[in-house]
Amino acid sequence: MWEETDPGLVQRGKLGDEKALSRILLDYTPLLRYIAGSLVEPSRPDYDDLLQEGYLALINSLPRYDEKRGKFSSFLFSCARNGMISFLRSNRKEKRIPFPEDLIDKGNFFDFLPAWYGEDIFDNLTCLETVVLDAFMETGSISRAACLLGWPRKKADNAIQRIRKKLRAKLEHEI
Known about the structure:
Mean pLDDT: 77
Number of domains: 2
Low-confidence stretches: 94-109
Order of helices and strands: HHHHHHHH
Number of helices: 8
Helix content: 55-70%
Strand content: under 5%
CATH architecture of the largest domain: Orthogonal Bundle
Largest sheet: none
Distance between the termini: 51 Å
CATH superfamily of the largest domain: RNA polymerase sigma factor, region 2, helix turn helix motif
Radius of gyration: 20 Å
């Protein structure tokens, strides 16, 4: 999908060479676009914000890169993705919480449960289910959650279905 930049160019960028930094930014733009696109749709307004976070991650990670530990693209991928996810988490908008009885059969539990029901909804979830629920709530879709976690979509979908089943049972028992 993208080619690794010349290690000499990365080294010059680490030392502050502006031309090298410009070239590195240009070379890794496809990678940053890929990461941002895997987290949000390119048509969304926060896509450009995620790209900015990616560019900042590239600039900030360049001095910390150690060529003995692997390729720069791998290091940048982790730094940029983490920066973008942190940005999304810090800019999460609060939603109005509907009453759950109206939503039991509509299947959209995840839009309201954590705020309405409190933290104890997670008591019966496994670690895997908690991780996929967090990713789902962060990204808004099963496909993007699976991509974020690096899982096959089916694995994420199965976990979400188990969560829905547990939450339905808990809600029906409580109501």
